[in-house]
Design a protein that fits this description.
18% strand, alpha/beta
Length: 219
């Protein structure tokens, strides 16, 4: 009997050690970080209202511990002042719902007061998005870009900078065609291909969703 107990104890010891180790190992996070960039340039400003639709969809999908920010793309977008609203949602559902309502209200106010920007610093906006989401340490990182993806920089702005997008999903939304694209569709296709190549070179995953009624695959 004593020998059987000793054998049983010996067999259980590795199992107990494994259980203790598993209990001490930190659980990897499963939270999501979303950063929506909204193009406010003169050629795209009339599309800004669609940011509300995208924001409301994102808020409906996000849960406690998830993070979100909405920022404008304007002349120089690599700055905190371009962030319209940001939040990391509380563990308490009631508090999280209150945060979501306040967030939606900030975005609605921004849309109502949005003025066209003379230039479109998409790269600066991406750099700001990368910095924000990396600081949040989210398991999943989504950068959404509501823009025609035509970057126009003011004199003196340097944006020939590599983008470290490892672990990021970058989704271009509602990429409208410019007047010049109608004359030569190759310009539109080349613009998207250049951004795809740049995102993938930085280690990110690139997608385009032009039908905003089909956001089900997002987040």
């Amino acid at each position: 009997m004593i020998r059987l107990l000793a054998l049983a104890s010996a067999a259980l010891t590795p199992l107990l050690a494994a259980l203790v180790l598993a209990a001490c190992t930190p659980v990897p996070p499963h939270n999501i970080g979303v950063y929506l960039l909204v193009d406010t340039s003169g050629s795209y400003n009339r599309q800004v209202k669609k940011a509300e639709q995208i924001t409301l969809y994102a808020l409906s999908r996000l849960q406690s511990a998830d993070s979100i920010a909405v920022a404008r793309i304007d002349t120089g977008s690599f700055t905190e002042k371009d962030i319209i609203a940001k939040a990391t949602f509380d563990d308490r559902p009631s508090a999280a719902n209150q945060q979501k309502r306040a967030f939606a209200s900030h975005v609605e106010k921004f849309i109502d007061q949005s003025a066209p920007a003379p230039y479109t610093d998409i790269t600066g906006g991406l750099l700001q998005a990368i910095e924000f989401l990396n600081e949040k340490h989210t398991a999943r990182k989504e950068i959404l870009i509501l823009s025609d993806m035509k970057e126009e920089l003011a004199k003196g702005y340097v944006r020939d900078i590599p983008l470290d997008l490892r672990g990021f999903d970058v989704v271009a939304l509602n990429v409208t065609k410019l007047r010049t694209d109608n004359f030569d569709p190759r310009l539109y296709l080349a613009r998207l291909d250049e951004w795809r190549a740049r995102v993938e070179k930085g280690g990110g995953h690139w997608r385009v969703i032009n039908d905003l009624d089909r956001l089900d695959g997002l987040l």
